[in-house]
Design goal:
The complex is a heterodimer of chains A (164) and B (337).
Chain A (H helix, E strand, L loop, with lengths): L4 E4 L3 H13 L6 E4 L2 H9 L15 E4 L8 H10 L7 E6 L4 H9 L4 E4 L4 H18 L26
Parallel strand pairs in A: 1-2, 1-3, 3-4, 4-5
Chain B lengths: L3 H111 L6 H32 L5 E3 L1 H11 L9 E5 L5 E3 L1 H17 L8 E10 L22 E9 L31 H11 L3 E6 L5 E8 L12
Parallel strand pairs in B: 2-4
Antiparallel strand pairs in B: 1-3, 4-5, 5-7, 6-7
The chains are: A alpha/beta (164), B alpha+beta (337).
Chain lengths: 164, 337
């Protein structure tokens, strides 16, 4: 996947560590960050300060916190799944809350995965490494249906062994 | 000889006098009767007045009682709301408290990993302590979160296959398998009335303690068995699953599950402290932990309408027991003795 990643996260330290670790792990996808639910909605709808789709391209993967100011992560997720342009977006919830109700709700609203923010820098590294290896490398992302987007590189390594 | 006329006159006079006297008496009697009637009327009026006043008072009382009942219902609802708000509040506060810890731990670690050369061993040591303080704080917060989750979650009780639950739990801990730890279940354990999540928490915590609190070099041995005991063995009214005492509690049979270990034991002077939140009997260097394990177990057992207790001697291991209601319908008919 070459499209940018969108991180929706309001905590300064979390944003910093995420940026630091993605750089350290050699993730080349551009990392866009928005700090609250309203900004996330604007970005994904292409409104307000993000009206320019060339300057603010749709991401290929969204990492979404649940507890956000101005609009919750669940509201953002609902919008993502409601709009045809973003319906197939890969959305990974990444949040501090591990409550069963939140997890149930996330999957019910159509999240692709639910990750819990770890304590410990090495644990965060391991988590982002998993995201890099699984979601950005092995997984085949849906096309975003935008005419200006360059063709996805066809070099995704296939992990499944071909039958003998 | 008396003149008949005179006799008649005398008789008439006598009759007149008698009549007069009778008339006077009658007048007196009438006056008396009138007086009595008047008094009676007054009394009746007073009584009637009193009855009316009583009726009014009763009506007012009934009205007050209705208002009070309504007030109680409103206040209970308000209290329930407040409690749930508080629980939600503490839940989100706990989350907010964990965020800065990620910052502390992360930046300390970054310094250690990426600037180790610039820092001497002393500085690196300080950073290590910052990181471990953050870790410890995080554990405390997670434990509190756990505890509030147990307190606030709806916990409908149903039949739980205790035997399978215990065996499943043991299997999930790689550190609890032979030869590191010897856990023996004298089964099969009977089914109980409980809640899977709460019971899982109880058993995990009890076994975790049994495995942890052993003298250095000793292999932990845990023996688990269950027996049916009469509820009256405790002399304390046994609550039903909803917390209210049953009418025939003394005839109930409950399931007592024992967890016996060969650990360091608990001194009798410390008996009351083990269930307190964050109370730890041993220093951190000897045994890590936040001291909330048994607090959570007791809370969870409470919510299932059960009881918890233990027998222990310092240096002689401990025997913890939890009592739970029998699963309904199993067995069909039982009597004592």
């Amino acid at each position: 996947m070459t499209a940018p990643l969108l991180l929706v996260e309001d905590e300064d330290a979390s944003v910093f560590f995420f940026q630091h670790v993605t750089k350290k792990l050699g993730i080349t996808n551009e990392l866009r960050v928005v700090r609250d639910g309203r900004a996330a909605l604007d970005y994904l709808e292409g409104t307000g300060p993000f009206a320019d789709r060339v300057g603010h391209p749709l991401p290929g993967l969204v990492i979404l916190d649940v507890r956000l100011p101005r609009a919750t992560g669940f509201e953002v997720l609902e919008l993502i799944r409601a709009r045809p342009e973003t319906r197939n977006l890969i959305v990974l919830m990444m949040t501090a809350s591990g409550s069963e109700e939140d997890i149930e709700k996330a999957y019910r609203l159509g999240a692709n995965a639910y990750l819990i923010k770890p304590l410990g820098l090495e644990n965060l590294e391991a988590l982002i490494r998993s995201i890099r290896d699984f979601w950005l490398t092995q997984n085949h992302a849906p096309s975003l249906n935008q005419s200006w987007q360059p063709q996805e590189a066809m070099g995704n390594p296939s992990v499944l062994p071909t039958s003998a | 000889m008396t003149n008949p006329l005179d006799a008649a006159a005398i008789s008439a006079a006598a009759i007149n006098e008698a009549l007069l006297i009778a008339g006077l008496h009658q007048h007196e009697l009438t006056a008396e009767a009138d007086k009595l009637n008047a008094r009676l009327a007054t009394e009746i009026a007073v009584r009637h007045h009193a009855e009316t006043a009583l009726e009014l008072a009763n009506a007012q009382l009934a009205d007050q009682a209705d208002k009070l009942e309504l007030l109680v219902v409103e206040r209970t609802e308000k209290l329930r709301e407040t409690v749930s708000e508080l629980e939600g509040f503490s839940y989100s506060v706990a989350h907010d408290l964990r965020a800065p810890l990620r910052g502390m731990q992360g930046f300390a670690r970054l310094l250690q990993l990426e600037h180790a050369a610039e820092l001497g061993p002393v500085a690196r040591g300080y950073l290590e302590r910052i990181a471990s303080s953050a870790s410890r704080m995080d554990s405390l917060i997670q434990d509190v979160l756990n505890y509030t989750r147990i307190s606030r979650a709806d916990a409908p009780l149903m039949q739980v296959n205790l035997d399978r639950l215990v065996r499943d739990i043991i299997v999930t801990y790689p550190g609890w398998q032979a030869p590191d730890v010897a856990i023996k279940i004298e089964g099969p354990l009977p089914p109980v009335l409980g809640h899977e999540g709460l019971l899982t928490q109880c058993v995990s915590n009890l076994l975790s303690n049994a495995v942890k609190f052993v003298a250095a070099g000793v292999v932990p041995h845990v023996r688990i068995w269950a027996e049916e005991v009469p509820a009256s063995s405790s002399q304390i009214p046994w609550p039903a699953a909803d917390g209210k005492p049953l009418a025939n509690w003394a005839e109930q049979i409950v399931v007592r599950v024992w967890f016996e270990n060969n650990g360091i034991g608990i001194a009798s002077k410390d008996r009351d402290r083990v269930f307190q939140m964050f109370e730890r009997l041993n220093p951190t260097e000897q045994f890590e932990g936040t001291g909330i394990g048994l607090t959570i177990v007791r809370k969870a057992v409470d919510r299932m309408g059960g009881r918890i207790g233990f027998e222990s001697e310092l240096g002689q291991g401990s025997r913890f027991w939890i009592e739970l209601h029998q699963a309904p319908g199993f067995p069909a008919e039982r009597t004592l003795g």
